[in-house]
Amino acid sequence: YKVQVNDSLNMNPDPLKSQYIVWSGNLLRRWVAGDKTNNRDDDYFSISGMATLTRPNGHVFNFNIATPLQFGTACNFAQSGVVNVTGYTGSRVLNYGTGTCDDAAQLNIGVNIYQLTLTY
Question: Do the Cβ atoms of 45 and 29 come closer than 8 Å?
Fold first, then answer.
């Protein structure tokens, strides 16, 4: 499925003081496994592409999926994939691992590496 995103969200409840977050991009979602069975727990999807997020203060962040993100319907988290993020303060790399269904991810900012615990 080709997904084109062009959306905005007003972060201020007062319409006279609008503060928009703008999200745009082009993504490709593929059904990569489980499409030939009636069992939804064996379905896997991958997402690739790129997107841009602009915050109300004008800061822009670019997201480029370097390694497709993989999601299984039986898991609450991305199971694998790498996203490169660039913005006004530099670059970051978000790595979801190699395919295990867990709540772990890794964020690289320059030479610093942070282990993350994801929540939903």
Answer: yes
Enter the tokens of residue 84.
Answer: 């490169």
62 neighbors 86 (Cβ within 8 angstroms): yes
Helix-then-strand count for the chain, H and E: 0, 8
Ramachandran category for residue 106: left, alpha or beta (phi over 0 → left; psi -120 to 50 → alpha):
beta
Nearest Cα residue to 91 out of 65, 67, 62: 62
Cβ partners under 8 Å of residue 67, min gap 6: 80, 81, 82
Kindly state the average pLDDT of the residues 17-31. 95
With the C-alpha atoms ordered 93, 98, 101, 106, is the resulting torsion angle positive or negative? negative
pLDDT of 35: 81
Q: Which own/partner pairs from 98-103 qualify as long-range (CB within 8 Å, at least 24 positions apart)?
A: 99/70, 101/72, 101/74, 101/75, 101/76, 101/77, 102/77, 103/76, 103/77
The count of other CB atoms within 10 Å of the CB of residue 33 is 14
